[in-house]
Specification:
CATH superfamily: Jelly Rolls
Strand content: 35-45%
Radius of gyration: 17 Å
Helix content: under 10%
Protein name: Cupin domain-containing protein
CATH class: Mainly Beta
CATH topology: Jelly Rolls
CATH architecture: Sandwich
Distance between the termini: 44 Å
Pfam family, one: Cupin_2
Order of helices and strands: EEEEHEEEEEE
Structural class: mainly beta
Shape: globular
Number of domains: 1
Strand order of the largest sheet: 3-4-10-5-8
InterPro entries: Cupin_2 (IPR013096), OryJ/VirC-like (IPR047142), RmlC-like_jellyroll (IPR014710), RmlC_Cupin_sf (IPR011051)
Number of helices: 1
């Protein structure tokens, strides 16, 4: 049975007592520009320094990629390349839909190299289900299977599901500053 992402958030009452403030299933977001995929935006922190305490916190999930010091955590279910639906529709309309549902996501993709992108983030990617291939800019690939963790350090890359079933990844994105 596939994993169903669920968000549980803790907080504090004004007197400091710990409480559960959220416990709910995550809702998937699909966009035609990345057919067959489901994004589950779980939580994020504002750019800068994260803080904790009794002040209620709300998630910061947009823009999609955090700025320096910000964070995001999401699940992404990738359809197998062989069964992903074709891109249907006008590319401008698909881009507009993605910009509306997942602001900032498509800004990093290279129009002449499908799937290739570079972000100013350190990403921890954990394969939970299926298998996913990580391709680097020189064409080298590595296959991730459940339990594999990849640390993506702002390099140019693309993801491919060459398997025969969906792959589920959990990504933690930490906004960074590029040193060159």
């Amino acid at each position: 049975m596939p994993i169903q992402p669920r968000l549980i958030v803790t907080g504090r009452e004004p007197d400091g007592t710990s409480v559960f403030v959220t416990d709910r299933p995550a809702e998937p977001i699909s966009v035609g520009a990345i057919p067959g995929s489901e994004f589950y935006l779980m939580w994020g922190t504002e750019d800068g320094t994260a803080t904790v305490g009794t002040k209620p916190r709300q998630p910061t999930t947009f823009p999609f990629f955090p700025g320096a010091g910000g964070t995001r955590i999401l699940f992404l279910r990738w359809a197998p390349d062989s069964s992903a639906p074709e891109h249907l529709g006008d590319p401008a309309e698909l881009g507009a839909e993605a910009a509306a549902k997942l602001p900032g996501l498509m800004d990093v993709f290279e129009p002449d190299n499908p799937g290739m992108h570079t972000t100013d983030t350190v990403d921890y990617g954990i394969c939970l289900e299926g298998e996913l291939h990580l391709e680097l800019d020189d064409g080298q690939e590595v296959k991730l299977t459940p339990g594999a963790v990849v640390v993506q350090q702002g390099t140019r890359h693309a993801w491919h599901n060459r398997g025969d079933r969906p792959a589920l990844m959990c990504y933690v994105l930490i906004g960074a500053e590029r040193d060159s």
